[in-house]
Amino acid sequence: MTRNISDALQKKAVIELNENVIRRNEDIELIRKWLNQQPHLNANLDDQYILNFLRGCKFSLQKTKEKLDMFYTMKSLLPEFYKDRDPFRPEIQEILKLGLCLPLSHKETEPQVIFIRLSPEDPFKVKFADVMKVSLMILDIFLKEDDNFIISGQLGLVDFKNSTINHLLHLDLSVCKKAATCLNFAYPTRPKGCHFVNTPGYFNKIIDTVKLWLPEKFVKRVFIYSESNINNLYDTIPAKIIPKDSGGSGVTVKELTDYWKTKVESYRDWFIEDEKYCANESKRIGKHSTSSDLFGVEGSFRSLSID
To answer: Which of 32-41, 189-198, 256-265 is predicted least confidently?
Structure first.
């Protein structure tokens, strides 16, 4: 069974995602039948989970199949993101306490804003891959329980207030490429844009590299703000939902951090169970997928020339 949603959200799904309420269950069953016929996929066959991908692919059955295949393939090829996701593991607890990925409050039928901040502590104390792991855990919670997240899309708000040269040196190009590929090609998300504030002088070199891995339509949705035009940000993301200690008038970063730490911890059993859903490339009919095929980048930002 799938969840009931409000009339307003259903109307949005019909208009923007081509959702046909009468045919919806038939589409879900067609995808479930296809998944059962793929010997290399051990997939979550829950109605709601399949519906997430149908919505994210605007009910194109072919695109839904491709995205589901990629989703479970990523879970096998990227153990650094998808293995050992017990929220009480020390490395995950450390990142949850730092509050680096914090969804903000939102109104229904409006995009979900994800507030991303740099570690206020020495970035070398945490692995960037673990930061991505926790971020994807939070994204998975939205897939599990929030229809608006899929239907209305997402906005990123990235704050570089804590930026130091060590944050730059800590970034790993291979992990960045894997994360970008995963988010863009495996998840049924609808990214509406990414907004950057308090960026350092070297930021343009980073963003120019990242843009090479993103679809052109998303590159056009990247916005960078300075003190002179910060008010333009509030036309898209209201100041009232931005944390008060980050330039807005919403709840504090600590309040958000405590809430999401508890929320992620409450999903412990689900994360442990979810690990079994993945792809087994040895059973795939046809060409096997490999990490080098999908990502093909090594190195770090240490190799960039920073003025």
So the answer is: 189-198
Q: Compute the Cα dihedral for 292, 173, 257, 125 and give only its sign.
A: positive
Q: Which residues contact 84 (CB under 8 A, 6 or more apart)?
A: none
Are the C-beta atoms of residues 62 and 300 closer than 8 Å to each other? no
Give dist(CA 68, CA 56) in Å, integer.
Answer: 11
| Domains of the chain from N-terminus onward | 7-81+275-286 (no CATH), 88-266 (3.40.525.10)
Residue 197 and residue 150 in contact, taking contact as beta carbons nearer than 8 Å: no
Report field, pTM of the whole predicted structure over 0.85 = yes
C-beta separation of 243 from 250 below 8 A: yes
For a pLDDT cut of 70, what percent of the chain falls above it?
93
Helices (H) and strands (E) counted in the chain, each on its own, are 15, 7
